[in-house]
Target: Threonine synthase
Amino acid sequence: MLYRSTRGNCSNVSAAEAIKRGLAADGGLFVPEKTVHFDNEHIQKMSEMTYQERALKILEGYLDDYTISELTDCVNQAYTAQKFGTEAIAPLHKLYDSVNVLELWHGPTSAFKDMALQILPHFLVKALKKTGEKEEIVILVATSGDTGKAALEGFRDVEGTKIIVFYPSEGVSQVQKMQMVTQEGSNVYSIAVNGNFDDAQNGVKRIFSDEDVAALLQDNGYKFSSANSINWGRLVPQIVYYFSAYADMLKNKEIEVGEKVNFVVPTGNFGNILAAYYAMQMGLPVNRLVCASNDNNVLTDFVNTGVYDKNREFKKTLSPSMDILISSNLERLLYLVTEGNSEQVAGWMNKLKNEGTYAVDQETKKKIQNVFWAGYSNDSDTLKTIESVYSETGYVLDTHTAVAVDVYDKYVISTSDVTKAVIVSTASPFKFNESVVKAIAGEGAVNGKTEFELLSVLSEKSGLTIPAPLKELDKKPVLHKEICEPTHMIEKVKEALNI
Ligand SMILES: *Cc1c(COP(=O)(O)O)cnc(C)c1O
Model:
């Protein structure tokens, strides 16, 4: 299996090469040249398998330059019951008769990024060996919260790697900040930047493109890489849980073999829902994919009109991990629905870069609408959804998942489609506890309390146990105290690497 660029201007590479490079040289994203197919019989067999076995089946088709024993090793190191607190890894929770919630937040950082970032480091280390790299890899990340912590946990103590994460000193929540400063591991550095997320991100971009730094790194046996969500090595493990959810529904006798289901996905960068689209292309019986956004509803407008327009106000919402105006992974969908018309895709992406907007043709729009339905939820509807689902069922949603549930309600009202549905849940309610407690216990329950005090409030109110990694967070020793100006990020990298 070879991988080509969505923009069509560079030569095809192996999976290991695609994972090592992240982005193609022409600025495009790597896509597999073929689709791996699963028929109903294969899918039915998955219902008897463990999550790890299901993962192996999906991965071996796409990462065919890795040996089975290498992939087994990756899967077994990433998806352990110890790290995920459950044998199921990605368990289903039955919410209503025909609606399940797929919980993707049992990993070490309590959000869905763990599903990919627990395994990517292992893919990457093996990719380096396979492609003859001798350097030690240095992962640089600028984060507004979830990704940085998930990357730190994923790369922690992974041989042959170091990871340096920069986060805005005042731009993350209390829980997120404590997660970052208490990070354990012999190869991890987390550094606050005196500024906002853009300052941190621009600083990281500057370091990546600084030739002197690259040369200095090379002289010292290091090489930069990134772990961002356009890497194929992050996308492919996300396909697994769609098959896994379906297999679990078969196992629970909730659906017949071949019966179609809907998936509802809270969306930001379009990575998670794109994995669902790949699963569908691969033969998973899917009826519709519901794309749920918050007030940053660029994707809602795009699916409904065919016009992508990021020239709009950026809004800070209660579902911050979806506060995004450029959904990078959409480029892969455009490539797929135009049947690999890379010239057209490159044209749209250039327009996006230069004008902030592009419009797809009618045929492309229709093809997208045949599969996707899109809607959005504002903060007030999101909170109401948390409250109503809690009072009806006792189940507690986080804000991101609540966006999905609210948009799903709108979908059912608008289409009357009652096909069985899976709501993809991307964060533990404990991670965004302030909004959640406000929704289920009222403003008064939140006033004057820190996020750490609210963990126990939420636990008492809901009867849920606080996820172990969050529980003692405020009592853990602070290991990373460094703070720097945006202009000094390069010096911090050099210090960390001793060069
Ligand atoms: C990253 C994230 C999302 C958005 O996922 P995409 O793959 O970027 O669409 C949704 N919810 C949470 C909690 C996240 O961390």
